[in-house]
């Protein structure tokens, strides 16, 4: 197998909680990301799904070095970039760019579109010589489907979908190999989301990009991703090919998440059993022992409180070659069809004790 | 009918011109019924709701025409103090963002109790007891202890439950929920929608659910009204609209949902952008984005056609519940095509 373009191992980000004014002492930590591993290959899209507070955005920030990891490795083409600084770091960062969620706050309102998209060239002048920049920016506008004549306009003159195209053009300016897209369409209207998804799809094949696509909309993630990872409270609980995760989920959290997604088909209403999880996500300052999902899991037993389940192919599926044989961090993993197309597929959970 | 909105018009007069936010909206909700109002931002779905509640920002907003008949009475002819007595007691609203809709410096118990003090003239002590009862009812654990807590001490899902409790406090006949679960996570959204549906059945309330999510609509609605540029472009029973939309905008929305069998293909996308409300295109407002648009669409505003599925010699579709309207000159083509 070819070497992955990105390899993340044991990634941890803890934000310390301190007490006292003069003599600050650490009283705890917000464990935003608590041991995440994944790989990303060239031209591949890895989707990350999870609810708010699960750490998916923190992972994104660490990949583009907006946050320094507390622990762990981020290898770009085999080189650990968490230890880099200065020139070496700068040249690596050129290759990993980010597209942000909110196109309203991620563009400077006092800069023209040309300045926004061209700004990366000020930091990395070797990519485009000065006289060449305007042309390059206009080409980028064209690539993302905006009129190149708009180069002197300001962000407020554009709609949300157009602004997101500007954000994407800025991300592409340095010809990166990896794009980290953090909820790139969730701030957009439904009829505009599809346009932006199609644009991202086209750019990926045109420029051989690898995407880390973070979103909470499960149907969009499935559409665009080759593989999908499900995060819960700072960890990936299940990861695999899109069909493995969506059609053969083995982790109870994934099953609950998928079953809770409203399906745009009123016929499915009657014969759909939803798994309604009890309670809220625990605080990341006080993560449950053992399996972190056990406080909301209907299958939790004594072992779940004692032993942290590893993210690996569960023992019972290790010798099968079927779609259920993918990494799942559950002691009692089993397949459960929660796809709404199969009537009566999901079994409602018993009350947790 | 519990509520009938007839030919409602709302404008916003701003420095840059007049924005026509609502341009002739008709809809009706009966007791125990759920009407979903579906639309993108700027379609006028929330402004219509604000006009019904009487909480429109005036100025710049102004109701320029139409009737809002609630329990047989046209609300637009009432004086403000009469409307205030209805608001909260007879109709209530649940907002999208519970954190900014709740008062951060009052405990949730005080805010819930206020409903009873103001509308029912209860003593503070009785009101507090009522607040605990309500919090129990919307299944907030340990209600008795948490009644003294402030909004920021609750999670998003719990805050939305408090909003629901507040809306339900005086057992109104109508609830308007404006994107009640948009700010919530999927698993919490399922909890909150379930609760809302259950309480609606219990109190036999009319519910207007404003949303942009086709999934949520399919889960809970009886009828759907699709809004575009301040008009209802299609109205139908929920099963009909998903089976065969009678307006190209509805069709476009349904087609742009990623489907399993389209993986790796381009998604259907409605071209262009929603119109500027200060400059709505002549004729049908959707015509610049419509794949079916012809000359007549650019000149004539389509009236509301009754959709019965059985015209022009085409087969009448027996699988339809009927009672639907479409604002498209070529709705038959859309329905059968």
Automatic annotation (TrEMBL), chain A:
Domain ABC transporter: 17-258
Any one Pfam family match given in the protein's UniProt record, by short name: oligo_HPY
SMART domains with a match to the protein in the record: AAA
Keywords per UniProt: ATP-binding, Nucleotide-binding, Transport
Top-level division of the source organism's lineage: Bacteria
Entry similarity comment: Belongs to the ABC transporter superfamily.
Name of the protein described by the UniProt record: Peptide ABC transporter ATP-binding protein
Species whose genome carries this gene: Streptomyces griseorubiginosus
UniProtKB/TrEMBL annotation, chain B:
Protein name (record): Methionine ABC transporter ATP-binding protein
Record keywords: ATP-binding, Cell membrane, Membrane, Nucleotide-binding, Transport
Ranges for domain ABC transporter: 5-254
Family assignment from sequence similarity: Belongs to the ABC transporter superfamily.
Cellular component GO terms, alphabetical: plasma membrane
SUPFAM superfamilies to which the protein is assigned, alphabetical: P-loop containing nucleoside triphosphate hydrolases (SSF52540)
GO BP annotations, alphabetical order: peptide transport
Organism of provenance: Streptomyces griseorubiginosus
Membrane association type: Peripheral membrane protein
């Amino acid at each position: 197998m070819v070497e992955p373009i990105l390899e993340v191992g044991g990634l941890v980000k803890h934000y310390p909680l301190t007490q006292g004014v003069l003599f600050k002492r650490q009283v705890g930590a917000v464990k935003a990301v608590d041991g995440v591993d994944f790989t990303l290959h060239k031209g591949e899209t890895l989707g990350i799904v999870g609810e708010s507070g699960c750490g998916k955005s923190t992972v994104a920030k660490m990949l583009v070095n907006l946050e320094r990891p507390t622990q762990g490795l981020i290898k770009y083409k085999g080189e650990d970039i968490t230890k880099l600084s200065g020139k070496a770091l700068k040249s690596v960062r050129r290759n990993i760019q980010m597209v942000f969620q909110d196109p309203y706050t991620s563009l400077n309102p006092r800069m023209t579109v040309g300045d926004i998209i061209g700004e990366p060239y000020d930091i990395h002048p070797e990519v485009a010589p000065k006289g060449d920049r305007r042309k390059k920016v206009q080409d980028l506008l064209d690539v993302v489907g905006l009129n190149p004549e708009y180069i002197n306009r300001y962000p407020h003159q554009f709609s949300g979908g157009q602004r997101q195209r500007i954000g994407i053009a800025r991300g592409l300016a340095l010809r990166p190999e990896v794009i980290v897209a953090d909820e790139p369409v969730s701030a957009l209207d439904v009829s505009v989301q599809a346009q932006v998804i199609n644009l991202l799809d086209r750019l990926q094949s045109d420029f051989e990009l690898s995407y880390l696509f973070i979103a909470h909309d499960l149907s969009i993630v499935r559409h665009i991703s080759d593989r999908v990872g499900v995060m819960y409270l700072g960890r990936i609980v299940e990861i695999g090919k899109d069909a493995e995760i969506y059609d053969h989920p083995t982790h109870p959290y994934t099953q609950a998440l998928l079953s809770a997604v409203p399906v745009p088909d009123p016929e499915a209403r009657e014969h759909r059993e939803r798994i309604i999880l009890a309670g809220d996500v625990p605080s990341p300052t006080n993560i449950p022992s053992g399996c972190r999902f056990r406080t909301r899991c209907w299958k939790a037993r004594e072992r779940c409180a004692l032993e942290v389940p590893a993210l690996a192919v569960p023992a019972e599926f290790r010798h099968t070659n079927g779609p259920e044989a993918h990494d799942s961090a559950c002691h009692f993993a089993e397949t459960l069809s929660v796809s709404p197309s199969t009537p009566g597929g999901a079994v409602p959970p018993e009350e947790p004790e | 009918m519990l509520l009938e909105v007839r030919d409602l018009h709302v404008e916003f007069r701003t420095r840059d011109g007049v924005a026509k936010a609502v341009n002739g909206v008709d809809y009706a909700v009966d007791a125990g019924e759920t009407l979903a109002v579906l639309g993108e931002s700027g379609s006028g779905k929330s402004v219509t709701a604000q006009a019904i509640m009487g909480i429109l920002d005036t100025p710049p907003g102004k109701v320029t025409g139409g009737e809002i008949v609630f329990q047989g009475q046209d609300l637009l002819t009432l004086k403000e103090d009469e409307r205030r007595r209805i608001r909260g007691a007879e109709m209530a609203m649940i907002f999208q963002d519970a954190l900014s809709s709740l008062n951060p410096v009052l405990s949730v118990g005080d805010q819930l109790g206020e409903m009873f003090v103001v509308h029912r003239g209860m003593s503070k002590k009785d009101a507090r007891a009522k607040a605990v009862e309500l919090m129990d009812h919307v299944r907030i654990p340990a209600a008795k202890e948490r009644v003294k807590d402030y909004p920021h001490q609750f999670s998003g899902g719990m805050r939305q439950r408090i909003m629901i409790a507040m809306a339900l406090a005086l057992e109104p006949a109508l609830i308007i929920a404006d994107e009640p679960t948009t700010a919530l996570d999927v698993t919490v959204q399922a909890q909150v929608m379930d609760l809302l549906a259950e309480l609606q059945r219990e109190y036999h309330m009319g519910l207007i659910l404003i949303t942009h999510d086709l999934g949520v609509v399919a889960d809970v609605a009886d009828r759907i009204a699709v809004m575009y540029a301040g008009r209802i472009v299609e109205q139908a029973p929920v099963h009909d609209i998903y089976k065969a939309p009678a307006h190209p905008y509805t069709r476009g929305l349904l087609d742009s949902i990623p489907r399993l069998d389209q993986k790796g293909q381009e998604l259907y996308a409605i071209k262009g952008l929603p119109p500027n409300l200060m400059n709505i295109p002549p004729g049908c407002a959707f015509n610049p984005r419509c794949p079916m648009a012809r000359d007549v669409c650019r000149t004539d505003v389509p009236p509301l056609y009754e959709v019965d599925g059985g015209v022009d010699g085409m087969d009448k579709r027996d699988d339809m519940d009927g009672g639907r309207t479409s604002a498209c000159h070529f709705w038959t083509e859309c329905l059968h095509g």
